[in-house]
Amino acid sequence: MRFDAITIKDIANALGFSKSTVSRALRDSHEISPETKKLISAYAEEHNYRPNPIALSLKEKRSRSIGIVVCEIANSFFSQVINGIESIAYDCGYNAIISQTHESFEREIVGLNYLSSRSVDGLLISVSAETTSFSHLKSLHNKGLPIVFFDRVASDIKTHKVTVDNFTGSYDATTHLIENGFTRIASISLSQHSSITQGRLNGYKKALTDHYIPIDESLIRYCAHGGLFYEELEKEMNVLLNLKQRPQAIFASSDKITMGVLRYFKSTGIRVPNDIAVVGFSNSETTDLLQPALTVVRQPAFEMGKIATEMLINLMEAKRAVKVFENRVLPAELVVRDSSVKQMIELLNN
Fold first, then answer.
1. Measured distance CA(214)–CA(140) in Å, rounded
2. What is the pLDDT along the chain (350 residues), one digit of tens a residue?
3. How far, in Å, CA of 287 to CA of 296, rounded?
C-alpha cells in the first residue's frame, strides 16, 4: 500500500485556509495571528505533517543530505567509518544516503548516478576494487559537487583525502613476523591498481629488504574483488599452498581477505599458528575471541569517518571556492596476539 504523506494543500482544505496562509503559519510568520497559527500547528502535529524534503531542496537549492559510497556495509571497517560519518553529519543537520558497490565499477556508477539525481550536497567515497578510471568522479567534481575521498582514493582529483598509513602498518606487521622467525611470508592484497594495495605492498617489501630477505614474487597474490568472493581467495590460497616451499606466514591486507584466509585454513585443516602464522588488516571487534586470537593491523575507522565528514561539510558550506586541499594520513596500530607469535607455536607443540 502506498503511503501518502499529508501536504500543505491537505491542511488548507481541511481547515478552510489558503495554502499560503498554512505555509506562513507553519513558518511562524508574524503575518498570521497566534490563534490561526495554533490551530494549524495542532492539526499538522496531529496528522504528522513534515515538510517535503524535495520541495525544500528545490527552494533552498540544497538537500541537507550527504552521499556515501562504500564497498559493503557489512564490512566492519566501513561500518565503523559510517558511524563516524553519521556522528558528525547528524549534529550538523545532514542526513546520510548510503550506496554499496560490492566492489563493482558498474554498481559504483549506478550508485553515483542515483545520488547525484537526488541532489546530495556532497559526496564521501571509497572507490571500488574494480575502479581503474575516475572519469565519472571527475565529471561530478568538475560540475561543482563537493567530494572527499577516504581509504581508497583517486589521487589525481584535487580535493580532500583521508587515508591510513598503509606503508607503516604493513611494515610493522611484516617486521613482527620476521622477528618471530618467519622468513617465507606471503602477502595477499586487493587488486593491483588499488591505492591502498600499493602502500601496503611497499611496506611489506621494505620490511623484507631491511631484514635481508629476498622478495619472492610467487608469494605475492592479489584478489581483484578484495576477498568479497571466497572462490577468488580460495584460488590464490591454493596457489600458495601448492608451492614447493609453502609460506610460513600469511599477511592479509584487508578485512575480507583476512577472514577468508582463516576460513580457508579451517576448511583445509591447517592450524594457526602451528602450520602457518597469520597477520591481517581487520577492524572486527571479535578477532580477540578467535582461537587463537588474531594479530591485526587496526585502522582508526571511526575517526576517519569523522574527519572526512568535517572536511566535506567545510567544502559544502564554504563561502568561497576552496583551492587548498588536505591529504590527512592517520596512523594504523599493530595489535599482537597468538596467531603470529613463535612462542605460541612452541607452547602448542609441547
1. 45
2. 444 678 888 888 888 888 888 878 887 888 889 888 888 888 888 888 776 655 544 455 567 899 999 999 999 999 999 999 999 998 988 999 999 999 999 999 999 999 988 779 999 999 999 999 999 999 999 999 999 999 999 989 999 999 999 999 999 999 999 999 999 999 999 999 898 999 999 999 999 999 999 999 999 999 998 888 999 999 999 999 999 999 999 999 999 999 999 999 999 999 999 999 999 999 999 999 999 999 999 999 999 999 999 999 999 998 888 889 999 999 999 999 999 997 655 555 55
3. 8
Each residue of 295-330: b (16+ CB within 10 Å) or e?
bbbbbbbbbbbbbbbbbbbebbeeeeeeeeeeebee
Q: Are residues 338 and 344 in contact, defined by beta-carbon separation less than 8 angstroms? A: yes
CB 21, CB 32: distance < 8 Å: yes
Distance CA 83, CA 89 (A): 10
Contact 284, 270 (CB under 8 A): no
CA angle 144, 121, 58 (to 5 degrees): 100
Distance in angstroms between the alpha carbons of the first and the last residue of the chain: 66
pTM value is 0.82
Q: Which domains does the chain have, with CATH numbers?
A: 8-51 (no CATH), 63-164+301-330 (3.40.50.2300), 166-299+334-349 (3.40.50.2300)
* Grid cell at residue 258: 583476512
User: SS3 for 321?
Assistant: coil
* Distance from the Cα of residue 343 to its chain's centroid: 35
Give the relative orientation of helices 166-179 and 195-210 as an angle to the nearest 10 degrees: 40
DSSP structure class, residue 293: P
φ and ψ at 162, to 5 degrees?
A: -125, 120
**Using an 8 Å Cβ cutoff, are 240 and 184 in contact?**
no
For residue 313, the SS3 value is: helix
Task: Evaluate the CA torsion angle 304, 309, 310, 312 in order and state its sign.
Answer: positive
C-alpha cell at 199: 602502500
